Amino acid sequence: MSNLSDLNIIKIGGNVIDDPAKLETFLEKFAALPGKKILVHGGGKIATRIASDLGLEAKMVDGRRITDAEMLKVVTMVYAGLTNKSVVANLQKYGCDAIGLSGADGNAIKAVKRPVREIDYGFAGDILADSVNGHAIRRFLESGFTPVFSAITHNGSGQLLNTNADTIASALAVGLASSYNVSLLYCFEKDGVLLDVNDNTSVIEVIKKADFTSLKEKHIVHEGMIPKLQNAFDAINKGVRSVFIGNADNLHLYQQQKFGTRLTD
Amino acid sequence: MSNLSDLNIIKIGGNVIDDPAKLETFLEKFAALPGKKILVHGGGKIATRIASDLGLEAKMVDGRRITDAEMLKVVTMVYAGLTNKSVVANLQKYGCDAIGLSGADGNAIKAVKRPVREIDYGFAGDILADSVNGHAIRRFLESGFTPVFSAITHNGSGQLLNTNADTIASALAVGLASSYNVSLLYCFEKDGVLLDVNDNTSVIEVIKKADFTSLKEKHIVHEGMIPKLQNAFDAINKGVRSVFIGNADNLHLYQQQKFGTRLTD
């Protein structure tokens, strides 16, 4: 048993952000979760809608946004401004002492502009190893604040960068794994990793690293889950204690150890 | 002499925010200023332009913005998102460990929605006495961070509020006056309080409280300066050590005690 204190890092995506009632319920449950915690939120559809209202066309390649200079302004406004501050104000309402952060704030997370190969993703940020400023984030956590990260980082030279929220959550988890017993919770639209993708009651409770290889080989888990699980086990290999994959609506079940699928060593 | 350490609170407005070259130069000088400091920035014209691009009409009464629900989204996006994070990323570039905050973050500044009398200002926030959370802001300052406040606050019940940046700066100064030797610097387009409003070299170096009454009676200072000076002396009456009024371009002269006009007890 380690002497480190527990830290839960929870990532929510568009299916929560875009649904005001679902978001409100989630934030109340998140606020009620005891102990040290960090929230990471993705963007949702608001940025795309506002970009469109401003006459900008959303350019996507393989599901990834191309972030030109104008689109960077929009995602910075929406993710780090509108969404982040609304989430923080609502958490404060529920008694959670949240502070909204981008990677630039406190130099918390640095990234590099994605190198141009076949595709120029524009101002998209890739997080390198050791880019998480554990010292700064520990200062927030140890002061009693709950950091709420939007999916915007910086390169340290004044450039903001649009960065995948899943990647931010996992980089934070790995970067803080030497200071805390980190559990990483990915919220998505299903109740967990399903044995039968069409049956939301077929949640697999625990997947151990050794099981994963066998599940892959036997094609038991759905193809689309493989990269998510791979990323989760990568984080576990780098010191994260557990990764959970489940439904934001069920966050209140986490303390009863009944939240989604637990991935572990 | 008090044993409190010094704290400089500097407010910049639209004339700096709207001019990228001027802003860049200012941020470099701000970053170079030693000791504890807080930056407060107003909005500038970007919010009005983006609102207009989104088909919203800016409604002003007596120079004050009417903030309906849609306009609140725009100012939250622009002030707390685009402007705040750009400023923070640029300060980080110059080695200043900035964190961007709204009043919701860390529950730093609460406000109340302005009561509707003749005019309904919408989601405009008024800061009441004791609305500054000195405990939270001290935690940021003592951790070595430089807070950068946008002109957005909250009411503690989940509602964000558009709030005058001059008022935020002065509320912070008064709220922190028992913990620090606070100097409050208002940057505007002139080099200081002028004896002759058409002569930028006619800066009055020091105005003491007793002088102010006489300057008012003799109509020596320009009519438009009276409310600014009145607010400054109100802050001084509430424990702020000095208030300076000067030009952002001259911030580098502050350490040589040559910045603008100094108002003092």
Give a verbal description of the structure.
The structure is a homodimer. The first copy, chain A, has about 260 residues and is α/β, with parallel strands linked by helices. The first copy, chain A, has a domain at about 5-190: Carbamate kinase, CATH 3.40.1160. Helices cover about 35% and strands about 20% of the residues of chain A. Chain A has helices spanning about 15, 20-30, 45-55, 70-95, 135-140, 165-175, 210-215, 225-235; strands at about 5-10, 35-40, 60, 65, 100, 110-115, 125, 145-150, 150-155, 160, 180-190, 205-210, 240-245, 260-265. In chain A, the strands form 4 sheets. Chain A has an 8-stranded mixed beta sheet with strand order 5-8-2-1-11-13-14-12, with helices on both faces. In chain A, strands 3-4 form a two-stranded antiparallel sheet. A two-stranded antiparallel sheet of chain A has the order 6-7. In chain A, a hairpin with a 2-residue loop joins strand 3 (about 60) and strand 4. Chain A is globular, with a radius of gyration of 18 Å. The two termini of chain A are about 15 Å apart. The interface between A and B is large, with 42 and 42 residues. Chains A, B: Its main location: cytoplasm. Chains A, B: Catalyzes the ATP-dependent phosphorylation of N-acetyl-L-glutamate. Chains A, B: Belongs to the acetylglutamate kinase family. ArgB subfamily. Chains A, B: Pathway: Amino-acid biosynthesis; L-arginine biosynthesis; N(2)-acetyl-L-ornithine from L-glutamate: step 2/4.
